[in-house]
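Sample intake sheet
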Amino acid sequence: MQTLVTGATGFVGAAVARHLCARGDAVRVLTRSGSPRRNLAGLSVEVVTGDLTDPSSLAAAVRGCSALYHVAADYRLWARRPAELYAVNVDGTRSLMRAALDAGVGRVVYTSSVATLGLRRDGGPADETTPVGLDDMIGDYKRSKYLAEKVVRELVAREGLPAVIVNPSTPVGPGDLKPTPTGRMVLDAAAGRMPAYVDTGLNIVHVDDVAAGHLAAGASGVVGERYVLGGTDMTLAAILAMIAELTGRPPPRIALPHRAVLPIAVVSELWARVFGGEPLATVDGVRMSMKKMFFSSAKAERVLGYRARPAREAFADAIAWFRAEGRL
C-alpha cells in the first residue's frame, strides 16, 4: 500500500513513518527542501519535496497514494509572524485534504491535538466530548489547530473526505530533534536548567504509542470521529521529580505563582521580538499552565485497542536519546 506521511522529518511524523515501514507499507514522505532529514535515516522511504503552502506540490505528493497520514504542523507557542501558523496549519491542511479528495485517497488520518479539546472545570480528565469553542483557545497555535480540525470535519461531512482524527496529548521520547516545547522542558530539567516551576498538569505519552495509535486509527477508526491518544496525567512537580530521579539530580523545589511568571514571559517575548531567537517563556504558555491539561484515552482504548506504556519509560527514552545526541 502506497502511504504518504507529512511531517516525517519531525518528532511524531518520524515515529509514524517508522511504524508504517515496519508494517510493510510503501512509504512516501513529503518534506520541505530545507528540512533536516536525520529522522529519516535508515528508513526505506520515497522522499518528495513540497510544502503545505504550495498546493501544486501537494497534488503531486498524494498522486497514487491509497492512504495519507497528515502529521505536519507548525508547532510553536510563540511566533514573530502568527500568520505563518494559520498558513500552514489551516490553509495547508485544507489544500492537502482537497488534494487527497481529488486523488481518490481511500483513507486519511489527520493529526490534530488535545489543544483543540475542552478542559473540565474540576481538573478531571477531559475527552472528545468535553464542550469547547474557538473563544476557549489560548494563543495562535491552539486557534490554528482548532480551525484546521474544523476544516477536516467539514470536508468529511460535506464532501465525503474519508478522514479519521487523532488528538495526541503530550508526546515524549526519542527523535525530538528541534526539540518541541515539551522536549525542551525535558531537556532543560534533565540538564538541571530548571530551578523553579509553575503548578500545572500534563498528560504524558510515549511518542511510539502515539504512532501506534495513528496506525490503529487508520485501520479501525470511524470516519469523522476523533480519538485522544494520551497516556498518564501528571502534575509538573511529579514530572520534574521523575526526570530528576532518572538523571540523579535533585528536583527543583521552588514553585512560582503564575502571576510572578507572567511579567517574565512578557519581557522574554519582547526581547525575542527585538533581538531574535525564541523567548524563554511565553505569555500563552503561562496562560495555558493555569489549567491542568488532563485527558482520557478511553475511547481510543475501546475502539482502536490503543494502549500507552508508563510515562517513566517515555522520559527514560527521551533522556537516553538526548544524552546519545550529546545534548546532556
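Comment: The domain at 2-172+206-230+294-308 is CATH 3.40.50.720 (Rossmann fold). The mean pLDDT is 94.
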